[in-house]
Amino acid sequence: MLVSLYRYNPETDSAPYMQDVEVDIPEGKDLMVLDVLNLIKERDSSMAYRRSCREGVCGSDGMNMNGTNGLACITPMSQVVKKNKLVLRPLPGLPVIRDLVVDMSLFYKQYEKVMPYLVNDTPAPAIERLQTPEDREKLDGLYECILCACCSTACPSFWWNPDKFIGPSGLLQAYRFLADSRDTAQAERLSNLDDPFSVFRCRGIMNCVSVCPKGLNPTKAIGHIRNLLLQRAT
Amino acid sequence: MTVRAWKKGLQKLEAIGERVRNTKLTDTSNAFNTARIEALELDNLFEVALATAISAFERKESRGAHARNDFTERDDENWLKHSMYFPLDKRVGKRDVNFAPKTVETFQPKVRTY
Ligand code: SF4
Ligand code: SF4
Ligand code: FES
Question: Which of A20, A22, A101, B96 is most buried, taking the most CB atoms under 10 A from its CB?
Fold first, then answer.
């Protein structure tokens, strides 16, 4: 099988290039893309990529596989390989540190902006802040995000304004706290998002939804935030 | 675990140790060098494997997941202790469990039979 790899080492390469390698895939096995990368690394230890849990939990190995973002560890070859060829590139739109490793600083900066933590200054009860099962249910589909950046780096609006548009991942987390019955900072959270860029750069392109490896729906969350912002304005 | 099985295991470990000592790093780049990280991990994993094998041999009792065929019983008399492994001379020492108090009324150390 032909695997085409994006290679770039800032110390030795003046520009990135594509390297074609031939990989022997064991018969009758549907390997994950990460397994194939590991086979490649056994032969060439200089191939750099992030990975840790190898089961879709840590969010380390987001990458672009034959044009689609996803986690290499839970993407079966049968799902992405076309015409017996696999092209692996780093997540689009972020600066490349080396090979498939991107600099996530901008992504994290946007995440930080949405205050991704519970704000509640009332005295904490002896045991815990309670929530009804119905209120807890409102967080389903929001809290599961593993910050892999597959969505934000598939979003054309984020490519254009990675410094000003929060992006689908950050906005999903923004809504995760806006929707939390225990949080008391809703007004402040909305004020922080109320500008032409942070939320309203989203054009509903839905790339984010189609790539999310956890099956989450940032577009829907963004819709809810829009409604909250519009309600507030009237 | 039996002594024979243990000796065989240790021999295998020593053979692997020989290979570990001969690892060579071909990628010396300073940019996100995952080969270097893996080489360090290999060293550490091997040390821990060796410490585990040697300490298990010295602990002449069975306790929880540490199960021996030649010492099938738990021995609180001699082994309510931490094992200390000294990598330089591959020696195992004992050290008292430094909880104070070491035992409490409600939970006396005893054989677990469930
Ligand atoms: S729906 Fe919005 S956030 Fe998602 S990819 Fe499209 S523009 Fe980006
Ligand atoms: S929303 Fe999905 S794709 Fe986006 S960062 Fe979270 S888990 Fe990854
Ligand atoms: S290695 Fe953790 S998500 Fe893929």
Answer: A101
Residue B85, min C-alpha distance to chain A (Å): 29
DSSP A33: H
Closest to B87 in 3D by CA, of B41, B55, B51: B51
Distance (angstroms) between ligand 3 centre and the Cα of A62 equals 8
Query: What are the pLDDT tens digits along chain A (234 aa)?
Result: 999 999 999 999 999 999 999 999 988 999 999 999 999 999 999 999 999 999 999 999 999 999 999 999 999 999 999 999 999 999 999 999 999 999 999 999 999 999 999 999 999 999 999 999 999 999 999 999 999 999 999 999 999 999 999 999 999 999 999 999 999 999 999 999 999 999 999 998 899 999 999 999 999 999 999 999 999 887
Partner A, chain B 7-26, Cβ-Cβ below 8 Å: 25-26
Amino acid identity for residue B66 in this structure: H
The residues, ordered by sequence, that sit 6+ positions from B23 with a Cβ below 8 Å of its Cβ are B39, B42, B43
Distance A55 CA to ligand 3 centre (A): 5
Which H or E run includes A154?
none
- In B1-114, DSSP assigns E strands to 81-86, 91-96
Closest-CA distance, B24 to chain A, in angstroms, reads 11
Are the Cβ atoms of B31 and A46 closer than 8 angstroms?
Answer: no
Structure tokens at B97: 């469990």
Q: Nearest Cα to A70, choosing from A33, A101, A17, A108?
A: A33
Q: Which atom of ligand 1 is nearest to the CA of A201?
A: 7
Query: What are A91's two structure tokens?
Result: 């997540």
**Residue A141 has which token pair?**
């589909």
Structural element, H or E, at residue A231: helix A218-233
**Is B35 at the interface with chain A, CB within 8 A?**
yes
